[in-house]
Amino acid sequence: MDKTIQFSDMLTILKRRWLFIVLLTFLAASISGILSYVILKPVYQASTQILVNQKNPSTQIDTSFQQSNVDLINTYRDIIKSPIILEKVIHNLNLDMSIENLNKNITVTSQQNSQVFTLSVQNNNPAKAVEIANNISDTFHDDIPSIMKVDNVNILAKAELKQNPIPIKPNKILNITIGLLVGFMFGSGIALLLEILDSTLKSEDDIMDVLGVSVIGTIPRIEKISTRRKRKFARKNAGVETIATEAKESG
Predict the structure, then answer these.
(1) The dihedral of CA 30, 34, 37, 40: what is its sign?
(2) For residue 138, how many other CB atoms are within 10 A of its CB?
(3) Is the dihedral of CA 131, 136, 138, 139 positive or negative?
(4) Which residues pair with 110 in a beta bridge?
(5) Is CATH 3.60.40.10 what the domain over 44-157 is classified as, yes or no?
(6) Are 134 and 119 in contact (CB under 8 A)?
(7) Which H or E run contains 229?
(8) What is the pTM of this model?
(9) In the chain, is it the N or the C terminus that has fewer CB atoms within a 10 Å radius of its CB?
(10) Where are the domains of the chain?
């Protein structure tokens, strides 16, 4: 039987299967919460700021000279994440990771037309993230003169370990919210799908559409009487019968 579900029918279906939808929503949110609070390890980030400021022989401000410093940041980004720097960092800190893994945890960002760029390092240990970020910036600062034959790098701000570091990942509230939305949408979709796949006849219109006959009468639904109510009804009838018998004998 083909079904066409209108918006009003969808609301009725969702209302009728609200418990199923709520259970799936709660299940999805619970799974997301367990992943965020128990399984996924927190990730912390530490950042340093580095200034690219090549010495200008002229005392006047030269915009083209500043632009050349800005253009150098792209080159410096590649140098910072290159094996020549990261190998030394791994050796200096005795890190138990490969160059590729360390590279994945490093990001270098800068604002447009700014001579300052930010070096950020992510790690499961906040103290280790600070240590790696500072060592990378120090190593880069010490080696860049021999690599580029220039001395135009200064460290503006080093990474510091906060008293109560806050992880940047996972975002627990966001993950649980996404779990709630996904659970609700998934539960609503299954509820509508079950309604579409349900081929039972539920109304007079369904009977007319499928069988092509008119309904001449209906039988009301009779509520099933529990055993307790049956006993109570039997005792009540027994009392009425006794009263009737006594009245008959007295008459």
Answers:
(1) negative
(2) 16
(3) positive
(4) 117
(5) no
(6) no
(7) helix 227-250
(8) 0.67
(9) C
(10) 44-157, 204-250
Q: Which position has the token pair 């509820």? A: 191
Q: Looking up tokens 């539920």, which residue turns up?
A: 202
For residue 186, give the amino acid letter: F
Q: Where are the alpha helices (DSSP H) in 81-171?
A: 83-93, 99-104, 126-148
pLDDT tens-digit readout, 35-72:
999 999 999 999 999 998 765 555 444 556 567 777 78
- CA quadruple 197, 202, 204, 207: dihedral sign: positive
Distance, in Å, from the CA atom of 213 to the CA atom of 203, rounded to the nearest integer, reads 13
pLDDT for residue 152: 83
Alpha carbons 106 and 104: distance in angstroms, whole number: 6
Sign of CA dihedral 18, 14, 201, 197: negative
Of 114, 116, 117, the residue nearest 106 (C-alpha): 117
- The number of C-alpha atoms within 13 Å of 11 and in the hemisphere containing its C-beta is 2
Q: Which uninterrupted H or E stretch holds 183? A: helix 172-197
